[in-house]
């Protein structure tokens, strides 16, 4: 089978140069030269032809099989495009896929929230079903936006995955992901609300791509409650976020949890709006020391 394949490639290679092998003649027989308008006829040496990677060689012994080359870089994720091409047949022609290292982000503009949710679940299942080719992927993030609605929580992560993850781009990705968003916790506890898990996944994806840097997770509270209580709960909540990221593959050495309590308010007014603004998590990227 392999011999036939190599012979076929040899013939095809000759055809590329408009050269035809002479048939049925001995090596000493006169060579007929075709008219200039037709293909030229050349005498091929006896033996089997094999492709050595750069040219065809003649040999009476088949070459030893060589191990397939290991693909690296963008070419190694050719499966991403193949998987994307299955989305239209599944009913989601608007959905795309970005992959960088262990992070996969499903992207696109869904016509409505229901389509967004269905598309994300289908894409997530497709990655799980193709675990053999997507073996490096450990985190699937929702980056799907809705027409005239919410933008995908993983939108900034998808943009980060398409280029170099330097400190500036990492900081911008954290900022954009948290813009107008809040990590929710159970009241008076350091337990992350299930409603914030996709936001945490997006932030974890940024951290995974940026864990060559030091990442500080800063917890802040509003002014209600005692200073001591606010410092404790903000520390516990920032540690809960850190633990979540570590559980999903971020290097522990890259992450620092800090609880600032009420000491760094964005708005000093004593209003519900100010309190909501001051209750927040901030992520700061810097060089590792």
Gist?
By secondary structure, this protein is an alpha/beta fold. It has helices at 2-16, 78-84, 113-129, 155-161, 167-178, 197-210, 227-247, 272-278; strands at residues 19-21, 40-42, 48-51, 56-59, 95-100, 103-110, 139-146, 214-220, 255-259, 280-286.
Topology pattern, helix = H, strand = E: HEEEEHEEHEHHHEHEHE
Give the CATH topology of the largest domain.
60s Ribosomal Protein L30, Chain: A
Characterize the biggest β-sheet: 3 strands, mixed
CATH superfamily of the largest domain: OmpA-like domain
Q: Give the proportion of residues in helices.
A: 25-40%
State the helix count.
8
CATH architecture of the largest domain: 2-Layer Sandwich
Unreliable spans are 1-37, 65-76
In round numbers, the mean pLDDT is 82
Structure, described:
The chain is α/β, with parallel strands linked by helices and 289 residues long. It folds into three domains: 2-59, no CATH class; 75-152, Histidine-containing Protein, Chain: A (2-Layer Sandwich), CATH 3.30.1340; 180-289, OmpA-like domain (60s Ribosomal Protein L30, Chain: A), CATH 3.30.1330. 35% of the residues lie in helices and 19% in strands. It has helices spanning 2-16, 78-84, 113-129, 155-161, 167-178, 197-210, 227-247, 272-278, and strands spanning 19-21, 40-42, 48-51, 56-59, 95-100, 103-110, 139-146, 214-220, 255-259, 280-286. The strands form four sheets. A three-stranded mixed β-sheet has the order 5-6-7, sandwiched between helices. It has a three-stranded mixed β-sheet with strand order 9-8-10. Strands 1-2 form a two-stranded parallel sheet. Helix 4 runs antiparallel to helix 5. The relative contact order is 0.09.
